[in-house]
Amino acid sequence: MEKNRSTKISIIGAGAVGATAAYAIVMEGLASELVIVDVNKSKTEGEVLDLSHGAGFIKPVNIKSGEYKDTKDSDIVIITAGAAQKTGETRIDLVNKNIKILESIIPEVVKYSPNSILLVVSNPVDILSYVAYELSGFPKERVIGSGTVLDTSRLKYEISKRLNVDARDVQTYIMGEHGDTEFPVWSLTNIQGIKIDEYAKEANCKYDEDFRYEVHENVKNAAYEVINRKGATFYAIGLSIKRIVEAILGDEKCILPVSVLIEDYYGINDIYLGVPAIIGRNGIDKVLKINLADDEVLRLKKSANVLEGVLKSSLSEDGIAI
Ligand SMILES: NC(=O)c1ccc[n+]([C@@H]2O[C@H](COP(=O)([O-])OP(=O)(O)OC[C@H]3O[C@@H](n4cnc5c(N)ncnc54)[C@H](O)[C@@H]3O)[C@@H](O)[C@H]2O)c1
Question: Which of the chain's ends, N or C, has fewer CB atoms near its CB within 10 Å?
């Protein structure tokens, strides 16, 4: 895409995910101004210096550790602040802590960047995206969760390894919760338009129930596997964030499985969930109501039920965290 020289991006949260997203964004030359805000000022200043020292190799960008006032008139505000999963914790376990953190962030973002697009990444991302939507009062098109963009890349990786093909040629989605109830949409999975079962036959590879089970398990448990070994996941989510930002700024009209407000989707309403959506300069251009197989519809509903339960137990009737 053409690099936009007057684009301002703010990242709230300079932890592993925020810093890696910043790295991916400046490497791609997506912003002319990048502001990072975190309660840990010293760490943020360190990250900003380290990123800025790459100036000799990247497009000019003014990177700053700032206060909320410095984020004024951001085009996109990325939220990566909050507690991260520890070994043995699910994403849902983070909900109360991270809703409280979001309550301190969103009013500041709204005050200084009322026309921005909010990209929520902190977990549990579907719940926090809904809370950000409620707290901000922004139109639903401008509050986006990173959803299952990362999980879908993990799915492409797992399939590509088994079929010995470029992961970018694998067309597929993980849909639903970014979490334990997420599921692969096998019914639509193809390799550059060739149905996956036909492709596997052609490539002399196995494609059966065991294949699907193993791949699904590996994708679902991917974050746990990484966290067990290195404490956090950040490279692939950093690239996922960069990809969503690039799609917005480039007005790409590309399809990504982000977390969006669901309305009348297989009978599901008023919840944020990862589904394929068209992304452009105004955020969500359109949520795609795709044809799912019967078992996939059931899985989507299960995902929605779990998230509805978490939302109900985390929010009081007026939408504020309890
Ligand atoms: N959506 C996804 O696919 C995905 C993938 C990986 C991680 N995550 C989530 O992203 C979040 C960040 O993960 P991480 O590994 O960077 O965690 P981290 O602990 O490394 O960083 C979190 C940062 O948030 C800051 N912070 C805390 N409260 C704040 C506040 N009120 N205002 C500003 N900053 C605040 C902390 O000081 C810290 O620097 C977690 O919730 C994690 O679960 C999401």
Answer: C
